[in-house]
Amino acid sequence: FIEEQRFRKPITSVECEKFEESWVSDSSRRKWAWVLKVFDQWMVERNKAVNEMSYSGEPLINENLDEMSEEQLDFVLARFIAEVRKEDGQEYPGKTLYEMISSIQTFLRVKCKRNVTLIDKTGCKFRSLNSALNFQMKEKAGQGIGLVVNKANLITEEQENYLWENGFLGSDNAELLCHTLVWVFGIQFALRAGQEHRNLRFKNSQLSLQSDESGNEFLQYMEDISKTNNGGLSHLRIKRKVVRAYKNLTNVERCPVELYKKYVSHVPKEISDNAFYLRALPKPKGDVWYYNKAMGRETLGNVVKNIMRRAGFEGHFTNHSLRRSCATRLYEGGVPEQVIVETTGHRSCDGVREYKCTSSTLKRKASEILQGATPKRAEIDVKEKNEKLFNNDVEQKYDGQREETGEDYNQSVVISTHSTKIVISYK
């Protein structure tokens, strides 16, 4: 009889170092690595320029960022923000400069374990740095640098209908079905373009088929970790996003429940890496349409781009277009903002407002109103108001004349409006 061990084996110091890394996402690490590389390149070129040009009073910078005192950081980073440029010599947008300092701040806090707050809107501590950053951001905005952001285009309902009707979305073959699920889940569950799609899995899945109290079947997505909820100490009390996609009874072809069921029925029983989106087989093997391995990261990331390109739609379409389209459609449908927040998984209404976008149709209507075109609803309201005023006026004149004489008699009342003269005879 071998006694089963309750606790795991003692961990090493190397394993403990991984715990430190859990405070920061991989994307944050990649960002600060890029900023540090740019900083090092700037420092070398600046020292070279100072030596060649003999700038009076400008010292050489020889210390690494993690070795600098707070006074040195204030001095050096102020000059870095004022002088840094892209590789082609173009200036960085103000927001990028802000993010550079933010990344350096994260690096100093996490990697160097220094309790520093570089960005201070009051400019009390790192005054030179914050003054330089504030000046540069205002100057770049005044020059129009970085004001146009290359956001993912919205996908209109007309475009989506075209895709369904012309076979660019559907379930006729393995690749088409898998790509269609990426599309449907992106719209229905407002998944973020990258990691949230890749995080979907079969075992201990975020997806489950359920029924409500009335017996209506739906596919439920329950978030595990995301950009705004990583499951750690800082997000301990954050409510997890839970979204339902109900069965489409009027259009089964587009039903998320039926598409999910069909996909699951064609995947192999054993899946090596527990990924949800699988590579399609060149030819189906009976009921099995897919390999037991995950779809490639690049293939998954370009699903929407490739669908829209094949359909002939021009523009900047990405998987993120689905998430933006979800928020915009709910907004234009009059759905309360709180419900939109719960669907997208934002932690505040301010966050979701960045995703909502007024469609071209509504913008055109707004422009027409400002140019003197009266919307149909407004025309109806004006007509009803005029009729109400007219009826009240007639009743008041009639009642007043009845009170004066106390008897009935023939009378004509003439009421003139801005466009019509109406004559009413009553007894």
From TrEMBL:
Ranges where the QRICH1-like domain occurs: 31-126
Protein keywords: DNA recombination, Isopeptide bond, Phosphoprotein, Ubl conjugation
Keyword NAD: no
InterPro entries: DNA_brk_join_enz, Integrase-like_cat_sf, MAVS, QRICH1_dom, ZMYM2-like_C
Gene3D superfamilies per record: Intergrase catalytic core
A Gene Ontology BP annotation from the UniProt entry: DNA integration
Boundaries of every ZMYM2-like/QRICH1 C-terminal domain copy: 155-308
DNA-binding is among the record's keywords: no
Entry GO MF terms: DNA binding
Protein name stated in the entry: DUF3504 domain-containing protein
Organism the protein comes from: Pocillopora meandrina
